Amino acid sequence: MRLSHVIAVLEELYPPSWAESWDAVGLVCGDPDQEVRRVLFAVDPVAAVLDEALEWDADLIVTHHPLLLRGVHSVAATTPKGRLVHRMIVNGVALHTAHTNADRADPGVSDALARAVGLTGVLRPMVPADDDPRRGLGRIGELDAPLTLRDFTGRVAAGLPPTAWGVRAAGDPDRPVRTVAVCGGAGDSLLDTARAAGVDVYVTADLRHHPASEFAEHGGPALVDAAHWATEWPWLADAERRLVAASPEAGKLETRVSTIVTDAWSLHDEGAR
């Protein structure tokens, strides 16, 4: 397929118009007329992922996180991001980003997270989109049967790729949980939404001390906090499947999901016991 055709498919699955106004999604670099045979999916556009793409001879990298989220005045090879852009262009590797448009899709990032932690049946958005109540931020669903918070935390850890951050929980370890809200990535902006929804537990990433502490003090649901990268990684396989299934031509692409852990945190030490 030509790159322009692959991008057209991706933008039909994850329309750029669904992205937040501050976001930077779409084609970052690449010639629309170039041929694409191999597509690598990853969370982060970082050097290790580009190394994998070059080793595998990929023509296109599709990432969740943008490379150039904030405006820049230069992509000179004197900066880390500039070097990545130069390496991609020199080696003919295109880069496409689906970020908050993938967060709001149906299915999107939070659907994949919900399935990874054991939610079954119909899922509904925490914050439905104005034009389509099936889409939106976060997801709410149920477990097949109640679990204690302790056991559910173990299920989350088993369902997500391991990271140095691990999985943390706030709440009574023996508290029964069945109705679950999830939000892939940083989700403390939806704490009040989770409370209002009456869920038993909220799974997300990047929870800060004070909001989490105040939330627990005011009778909110239990909290489960995982690594940012880990909560978004399950979406990659879903995006891969949807691209391949989009058309007979797309079905001929070779695709791969990167398993390189690109979470920012690489060490964890619990300290003296």
TrEMBL record:
A divalent metal cation 2 binds at residue 64. Keywords: Metal-binding. One of its GO terms (cellular component) is cytoplasm. One of its GO terms (molecular function) is metal ion binding. A divalent metal cation 1 binds at residues 65, 103, 228, 232. InterPro entries: DUF34/NIF3, DUF34/NIF3_sf. Coiled coil: none annotated. Homohexamer. Belongs to the GTP cyclohydrolase I type 2/NIF3 family. This is GTP cyclohydrolase 1 type 2 homolog. It comes from Actinomadura spongiicola.
